[in-house]
Amino acid sequence: MRQQNVFAGITDAQEVLIRHWQSRRDGEGRVARDNIDPGALRSALACISIVEIDEAGESRFRIAGSRLREIFGVEARGMRLADIAGAHGECYALGLSAALERGEPVGGVIETGGRIHAWLRLPLVGDDGQLSQVLCHDELLASRRLIRSGPQDEGLIQHPRSRFAA
Questions:
Q1: 147 pLDDT exceeds 90?
Q2: ∠ at Cα 15 (11, 101), nearest 5°?
Q3: CATH code at position 143
Q4: Residue 27 lies in a domain
C-alpha cells in the first residue's frame, strides 16, 4: 500500500471527506466510487459533485450538489465541463487533472471578487477500473477564519487572489 498523503483539507468539511476517502482505500491505495458512503457525508452533500472524465478527456458532471449553483450560476448536473463558462471551468479542469495524475487528494483556495472558494478533489476508480472520476467538494466561505491552520503538503494548491486556477 502507498504511503498516505498528509494533506488534511483546508476546512473542517474537507477534513471529514479526506478521512472518509482514506478509510475506503483498497490495497493499491485507490478508492472506487461505489465504496463512497453518501450517508457518512450527509452534511457535505450540497457542496459535493462527481465529475467523470471519458476516454477522449471530456469531463461531465454526473452529480452536482445544490450549492454549486452559487459558484457556477447554473445547475451543473449533466453538463460538460466545457459548457461551464470561463474561469470556473478552467479551475475545475486543472484540479481534476492534478487529482487524477497524483492519485491523491488535492485542494486549494481561490479568492476573487470578494469571494473565498475552498475546493477539494478526490480521485475515484470508475466502473471501468480506472481513475476516471473525481469527487469534488466546493464551498464558498464567509471568512478566511474558516480556513484551518496547520501543516499542509504539496496537495495544497494556492493561487493569486486575482485569478481563478486550480
A1: no
A2: 100
A3: 3.30.450.20
A4: no
Check: CB of residue 141 under 8 Å from CB of residue 119: no
> Is the four-CA dihedral 31, 19, 104, 83 of positive or negative sign?
positive
The answer to whether residue 2 sits within a structural domain is no
CA 69 remoteness from chain centre: 15
Question: Which residues are registered as beta bridge partners of 137?
Answer: 48, 120
Give the structural domain span for 154: 12-22+34-158
| 154 HSE (CA, 13 A, CB side) | 7
| Set of cell numbers at residue 31 | 478508492
Residue 58: inside a domain, yes or no?
yes
Q: What is the pTM of this model?
A: 0.82
Cell of 141: 466561505
Angle at CA 32, nearest 5°, toward 140 and 150? Answer: 40
Using one digit for the tens of pLDDT, what is the confidence trace for 78-122?
999 888 866 666 767 778 989 999 999 999 888 777 778 889 999
The amino acid at 160: P
Calpha distance 67→79 (Å, rounded):
15
Are 107 and 155 contacting, i.e. CB atoms less than 8 angstroms apart? yes
Q: Specify the pLDDT at position 117.
A: 84
**Using the 8-state DSSP alphabet, how is residue 82 labeled?**
G
Torsion sign over Cα 125, 20, 99, 137: positive
Number of domains in the chain: 1
